[in-house]
Batch of 4 targets.
Target 1
Amino acid sequence: MKKMLIPVMLIIALVMTACGKAPAPQENAAAGNKTNTRAKSGTVTYQSETGPIEIPADAKRIIGLTNAPNILALGGTLVGVDEWTKKNPLFRDKLTHVETVSDEDLEKIIELKPDLIIAGSTMKNLDKMSQIAPTIVYTWGKLDYLAQQLEIGKVLNKEAEAKTWIDDFTKRAKAAGEEIKAKIGEKSTVSVFEYDAKSFYVFGNNWARGTEILYQAMGLSMPDAVKKEALGPGYYSMSAEVIPQFAGDYIVLSKPTGEENAFLKSDTWKNIPAVTQNHIIEIDTESSSYSDPITLEYLLKLFTEGFLGKA
């Protein structure tokens, strides 16, 4: 997670909470009236993206190869998770007794005796996993970050709890955004940067690192250059000489543990207005690379403190 950012981001993309273009949660909720139907005692039929699948009504041994943090946020019982979730500082203490497992380790999956598996659509051995336990597949980017949580709520028979959180979080984040805009100005822009030893990246509005909160929930603005280059693909790799063009009035700087980038010591960086004015909010990359409720609550508090100087 520290040495090769782009490959890592692609891996994370398979296991992070989905955050692409999708119908609004309200639209999914409407469709949800016919999403889960009771098939027989102890099971429900879940209408997944690959078709109807019979799953436990109350799964007790879940392997989350993707969306594990979403499951964790709703109190689901995990017995196996991907390595990136297990390493995440926000979840580490909650997953002490949960095994690390991958889509390639079928023997380990069998040993864990799952009654439900959640996997990504590009993962290996999906057919074989479905022979071990009911396997729900999600395509990263197909659902936005709120719709994804609602779907996990349906899977866990906790749709009402998921919807309640979505409504409450959306309301609180919007209110925080209005307060922030009142303080920094409606036209002020925010950029989300991240770096490794050799490169600098800027993010659009759906690539974790708090981008869903800042741009979607809070309604803050991004610079035109960011909108042009990063809004579609999700992120954009910048050469050092153009970084100032992508810097907003405020910068959220995602800092990976143990990584340094010489550009941060350069005069070019130090002369960016957001830097000279100390309009920098630092976040920990390892704790910010998902878009599940636990991560979103953590970042909402951090941004509220960073922009407004209060908890």
Target 2
Amino acid sequence: MITLVRRATALCALGAALTACGTTAAEVAPRPAPSAPAPSSSASRTPTPTPTLAPGPGGLTPVFEHGPRTDGTNHGEQDGTRDGKLIALTFDADMTADQGPRAASGERFDNPQLIAALRELKVPATVFMTGRWAEEYPDEARSIGRDRQFEIANHSYSHYAYTDDCYGLPTVAEDDMRADLERAYTAFEKAGVPNPMPYFRFPGGCYDKAALKELSATGVTAVQWDVVSGDAFATDADAVTRQVLDGARPGSVVVMHCTRSAAPVTEEVVRAVVPELRSRGYRFVKVSDLVGAANGRA
């Protein structure tokens, strides 16, 4: 029996609610998926080699959870000039295929104030976006994707799980997993997102060997996390802030959300967490920087 690998933390509540609403590091050219769109020549970001991980044992999709647990010497934030402990804030832009009517009635699955706060604070970040979110908010997806401060990665098309029994989420059939991933990249292309990253985050954080095998031909690196913020459906910003600060370590990947209806206090949390972590010697980077650090990039 294939053992399900998952984060048994606050994601249980998140998954249920969203239903309703040893590898060797190596640097390779970005390969989001064989049929994923190539970056537009008119894009503002110049395509550069993107760090990924080499395939796992048996050629399985590699899984990245955190970067090096050491000070990030020579890995400067944005301009490459400062040292410090690296940490990546990541934000899941969740939306399911059947939530269109709720969006049409006024429910907000985006959070432009959060993105504005990250820009104001000059915090690089990685947004794991569903294709359905990009379809609902193409202007926002394009704005985020064209901003060098951010990078967009794949979070499936409609946040359906890639395993059975994943906190109550609907599931994608094994034979449809690759098509689902590619459909998200197609949605990014239609929204005008240039150069989406070859990183994939499993909905609910749930995956098994079959899922890793099915996605292996796409060339993506699966990105998990080691710090659960607990911002999903939270109303106590102070509690979420403490959870992030207590869990942060050098190289950490923090999972948060950029969906107002599902994570209403995230902007407040970011405004509290960022200055405190900076005072502790942390520097904020994108997931690609952490993967590059793991690969020994200077």
Target 3
Amino acid sequence: MNKYSSTKLNLSISLAIVILAMMASCVSNKKIAYFQDIQTVNQAKLDNATKFTEPIIQPDDILSINIFTLNPQSGAIVNQAASNTVLGGGANTAVAAQQVSGFLVDRNGDVELSLIGKVKVEGLTTYQARELIREKAAVVYKEPNVQLRFANFKVSVLGEVNVPSAYTLPNEKVTILDALSLAGDLTIYGRRENVLIVRDNNGRKEFARLDLNSSEIFNSPYYYLRQNDVVYVEPNKRKVSASNSAQIQTIGVLASVISVIVLAISSFK
């Protein structure tokens, strides 16, 4: 092999390495953009998308309950809620223990209110529980007004998102998009077509997969999240490649060394 041929071979090897590296680093836009088929979807189909249904109160939920009466002092007595420790975070904070004021639903599905007693709220929506407590409070107070909501409506977002955390939310109408927004959206390494939802339904685990690239997500019964849902975003192949970047750099150095050796050998022939 003459010097010209060896140089040509060396350049070909280097070019092939560069091309392979570029191919490995490229990510198709089809795997990044959300709802890519939204322009072709029939509007009537979107009008029939999954409707929000109120979450059901379960044991270990913490409820914020406030009863307003004509006598503020008497209302203050029943509104004395205990502090409960829950896990929660925010867009700029890590998961941490937080003190949440509210009434704990015990294992029997009851909450206990001063002067009113135990009220069974398990299996009810917050609206139904509010009306039930208002009826019972009307026996003790004149024209009571009751406000009730979840104090520990929590969802956890894990995996390839910018801020993985457990998020305690004041609103029970939460979608998968809301949760991902709180977590700072997916990283470039997240698999958008295979997001996992883990749900605890009466002690039984449910698993579902959502494709953020498709508008079919709006028809999924898992589009609206429930308290204690877990959202997990898997890493894509590019993440694996990025994890092996050190090895790729090593291969590049070795390729350069081999090129120099080939040139050196060719120069002595």
Target 4
Amino acid sequence: MPTAANLLAIMPFPDIDPIAVSIGPLAIHWYGLAYVAGILLGWAYARRIAANDSLWPGNVSPISKTQLDDFIVWAALGVVLGGRLGYIFFYDLPAVLRTPVRALEIWNGGMSFHGGLTGTTIAMILFARRNAIPVWSLFDIVAAVVPFGLFFGRIANFINGELWGRLTDVPWAVVFPTGGPFARHPSQLYEAGLEGIVLLLVLAAFVYGMRALKSPGFITGVFVCGYALSRIFVEFFREPDAQLGYLLGTNWLTMGMVLSFPMILLGLWAMLRARRQAALQL
């Protein structure tokens, strides 16, 4: 257990202004730049994967660079609308029902990954059907690049001093301006490392080393499982949302865990389905 002395031993929070650029009344926040960086880098990486015919079934890419360019708008809408609606329904519904305008106040809670995933999935299904693209292959190429957005998003959370971790006395603990005079886990950086860097490298190993894109849906399953396991692990270090706290009278179960547990089963199902379909085509 952390001692009072340890908890009050202030480790200063990095003095980073949440506003990256300010020109008169126009203010560009790091959070917005994180979304832009994640989408642009993910798009560039997706174009590289799509251009490599040898990675795909029959050695023919199922999607062109032009189609990927068109999909960016669909993906952005899915992420933003799904992410915001997901946060409202999963984390903040009572407050929004009391004050509906709160739904537009993205600085009050922000976005939900699980909601963004749902919104993007709907966008992918609609776009794939409209453009005659195999939906599982579109799922795979998007899954392979999502860690870019997760990495930059979590770094932005850290810069904003939000979604911080639980009390701790580890040497790398941080005292966040909005977290009281207590040292906390920088859980945003844990998530950036696991959901961003580690998951990106794991997926790249499957894409390029194991040619997993030849089994449509397998990369999607790896991503869904990998994200869920990373999120559940970090939830043990992350402070739960204040309006929800811990669930079911526990001191460990959080909404993030509840939403992630089914993802493990879904990811395993996607991988098994992909392998079974690939075996039938041999």
